[in-house]
Amino acid sequence: MLASLCGLAAITVFSCALFLYWHLSVRAHNRRLEQLDTRIHVNGIRGKSTVTRLLAGVLREGGYVTVAKTTGSAARVIGPTGAEEPIKRRGAPTINEQIDVVAEHVTSEVEALVIECMAVRPLYQQYSQDFMVRSDITVITNVREDHQEEMGETLEEIADSLSATIPTNGVLITAEDREHLRERLRRNAEARGSRLVYADPSGVSDADMRGFDYLQFKENVAVGIAVARLLGISREAALEGMWKSVPDVGVVRLRTYDIRGKRILWVPMFAANDRESVILTLDTLAARFPAGATVIGILNNRRDRGRRAELFAEMVPNDLSRHLHHVITFGAFEDQVTSAMIDGGYARGRIHNLGDTVQPSLQQILATVEKLVDGRHGVLIGMVNIHTDQAEMLIEHFHELSGADHHDELEESLEPGRAPRGTQRLRNALVRPGGSDDDADGSRRERQAVNDG
Q1: Beta pairing, strands 262-268 & 377-383
Q2: Has residue 410 been placed in a domain?
Q3: Cα–Cα distance list, 239 to 159, 200, 227, 355, 448 (Å)
Q4: Is the CB of residue 255 less than 8 Å from the CB of residue 402?
Q5: Per its UniProt entry, which superkingdom is the organism in (predicted)?
Q6: What is the DSSP string of 408-448?
Q7: Cα distances (Å, whole numbers) of residue 356 to 14, 49, 317
Q8: Is residue 49 within 8 Å of 148, Cβ to Cβ?
Q9: 55 — alpha (psi -120 to 50), left (phi > 0) or beta?
Q10: Are residues 301 and 324 in the same domain?
């Protein structure tokens, strides 16, 4: 009896201590969030990491001391000067990572947080918004067909799932161009007391896009300009900040390499993995392919992404055959993917299996590419996913060939020329450790001076 009472007492004490720790942690997290002038939660199907980086650049150049966090191809924390550091994980990523980022990086001088949504399931998205980020501005970049298992089969259902991150009494910004989906997002926003702002890409000029040395879309830039307008940041400062921002690892930079005597344009589109984004990107890039070049698409299928493998197998004959002369399969599901393409009308002689069924060496892959290129010039396009053994070999090979032309994002983020106009404000903030109201007001006056030019 005594032993049972002692055990019950120990459990009670442990539970109370655990509850106290949780309570104090939540209070500390909320205090860090409440000190911020601006909290932006970036959600959507395509372009979340890119938009997170662009918005952080806008805020930094607008004078905000800003911390950002991306989740995409390589999870990173981007500090107030634009310098980056990778997120080190001991296991699989979880949404609790967002709390750790706030605890470690939102210090007393930080004024703005831009954070990419990690959650896919609507319940987790809502939890992320209501308890972890509590944004006053949420961005839904677009509504596309992806993650249907968790978010719904139709575009309307996916729009509703993404709406779980809309703030209460805040602002929703979207570049979604289909009016019926945008109106659905508007109704969902109004139900939470928020208003919708449409980031119209027609307001972004070709001259605005020339500041990017990689493939960028006007829709993403339009979101940055919309946020700048909302926060009183000049359009010029917003564009300058976006041009300076370091792109995500999965960005498409076009480079031409010599492969066994053939000139191969390498197009790493692995981060684009939904139908609409891939079609849009290929239609945009086609004009930049060398005349008469043989175009080869790589379907890079991860074993845990069976739905995507099925989607791209259907896309090749139905949507991509006008662009792709040949298709190479990497990774898993090769038999199923090949059969689906043939059933859709794509000729068997145009399909070449070099994935898990073959386990090829790098030299076998390169020899196949050389053989398929009819003439001097070829285009090699990586799609669907990033991580398979074959894709990683190929990516590393092109990385080595790049030499001095290779862009290392972590090194790029340290370049002095990318430092924002508000960096001096950060230095000033660092010598004001007291964090009084007068200090905060003075810091905001400095930021306004930055925006006033």
Answers
A1: parallel
A2: no
A3: 29, 15, 12, 42, 17
A4: yes
A5: Bacteria
A6: -HHHHTT-GGG--TTHHHHHHHHT-TT--HHHHHHHHHHHH
A7: 50, 30, 23
A8: no
A9: alpha
A10: yes
Of 219, 249, 279, which closes a domain? 249
Q: Are residues 227 and 267 in the same domain?
A: no
Q: Is the pTM of this model over 0.70?
A: yes
CATH of the domain at 376: 3.90.190.20
Q: Which long-range contacts (CB under 8 A, 24 or more apart) does 355-364 make?
A: 355/301, 355/329, 355/330, 355/331, 355/388, 355/390, 356/331, 356/332, 356/388, 356/389, 359/389, 360/390, 362/393, 362/394, 362/397
Neighbours of 319 (CB within 10 A): 16
Question: For position 231, which CATH number holds?
Answer: 3.40.1190.10
Structural domain boundaries, residue 388: 255-405
Tell how far CA 413 is from the center of its chain: 17
**Nearest Cα residue to 355 out of 323, 387, 312:** 387
Mapping DSSP to helix (H, G, I), strand (E, B) and coil, where does residue 59 land?
helix
Contact between residue 291 and residue 318 where contact means Cβ atoms under 8 Å apart: no
Task: Please indicate, yes or no, whether residues 145 and 276 belong to a single structural domain of this protein.
Answer: no
Structure tokens at 329: 């399969």
266 within 8 A of 398, measured Cβ to Cβ: yes
pLDDT tens digits, one per residue of 124-141: 999 999 999 999 999 999
pLDDT band (50, 70, 90) for residue 23: very low
What tens digit of pLDDT does each residue of 291-314 get? 999 999 999 999 988 989 999 999
- Write the CA distances from 90 to 79, 87, 93, 94, 97, integer angstroms: 22, 10, 9, 11, 11
